[in-house]
Each structure stands twice: as C-alpha cells, then as structure tokens.
Hints:
- The protein is an alpha+beta fold and about 250 residues long.
- Helix content is about 25%, strand content about 30%.
- The chain has one domain: Alpha-Beta Plaits (2-Layer Sandwich), CATH 3.30.70.
Amino acid sequence: MSDSTTRAFAILLDGPMQSWGSSSRFTRRETEAFPTKSALIGLLAAAAGIDKHAPDEAEKLAPFSALRLTVYRLPRASRRLVRRLSDFHTVGGGYDARASAFDKLSIPRKASGGASANAVITHRTYLNEARFIAAFEGDSDVIIAAIRHLENPVWGVWFGRKTCLPAMPLSPVEGADTQAASSTLIGRIRDWEETTRRPSFPPELDPTNLERWEEPAAEHLKPGDFHLHDQPVTFGEREFVSRPIRHHTRPTP
Length: 253
C-alpha cells in the first residue's frame, strides 16, 4: 500500500559482470544470486556524493537505508542462463615489500625476476549476463532526491565492484509503488528495444510473476523469510545490520 507521503522508484541493473557480496572478506569474495542492499545503497551514496570518511556519513545514509527494497530478476527471450565466473587474482606478486608506490607502478617485477613472498592470492566471483530491476519504496522526498542524484551522479556507479560497469543506463523511473515503477521501467525498455528491433524480453512480462526478493515489514514476517546482514549503517566504519528478505520464485510456465 502507498499513501501521499510514500513513493517508489525503479532502476535497471544490466551488466555483463556483477558481484553482490554480503559477507565477503579478505581473499575470497563471493557473490549472492541477487543484488544486495548494501551494494545498492552504496551505489546511491556514490551518486549523492556521500563521503564514507565524513563524520556525518551515517546521518546522510540513514534516509536511503530506510527505504524498502524489492529486486526482480529479469529473464531474457533467449533463455540464456546466468552463470558464475570465478576469477583468480594475485595482489602484489613480484613486488618487493620495500618498493615505493611509484616503483610498484613502473617496475612490475623484482630485479632478480623471482616471485615475491608478499603476493596475496584472491578468488573473486561474479555473475555473468545477469539483469535485474531494483525498486525502492519509502518517503517521497527521499525517493525524489535519490532519482535526482542518479540522473546526475557525483561519483561513478557500478554493480558491486568498480570493474562491474552498467551496460545500459540505470534509467530511474518513479511510481506509486515498487510494482508500478517496475512496470513503467519495463515499458520504457520495450520502447527502446522496438527502435533497435532486437527484443530481449519474453513476450509477456509482469513484475508480479517474476522471481523477486522483497523486504517485508518486520511485523509481517512469514515462515520461510530469511535475514541478510546487508543493510549499511556506515561504510567508513563497516557497520551493518540485518534485514528480512522474502524470496518469491518464478511460477512454472
């Protein structure tokens, strides 16, 4: 339900590589199967120019974090499956621990040519060819501010990691609620695709029939709901709290 003080907006998350970690630390960086609220609030914070090292960061993040999130998985007409890519990294391999920052940029290996004992091995996981709609609902003033920032971002936006850039514009669309905003966004995408004559959506696409992860109110929890520790309080201090999530699978055709 929505009222005069509650609105929603939806954005398109379409990119060849996405990574949505909720508990990744140190050398193993996994991804959830769907966009996390921490990553999406981080995206809004970057668009708004919120400095994570500023003393008032938590105060500026709070209105965005208070919005309720629903994520819809968008199918493709080609029925192409979303796959996971595990990428292998070494950090600092071949550098001398005593080298300056300039030397590390200009001299990729030690003069002896040997491997460095300071190399750090990391594994990072990504989603390939995923496409989602993220819809936020809450205070209308916050919704309007978020849309304004996304249309003219202060800093760059990406999908979980800086290497995961959007393939299409986020295209924020406002609506009375998350379903209405998402339906409007789907209609806009269909209009774009008609001009290119390369439709990528199935013929019928209704948000109510899509696989989705929604954030129910705490007083409306049901059996099967789960919690994820992905609602940010501050990014600078890396403080997060848990939130409820309800997963709706896509009906069988």
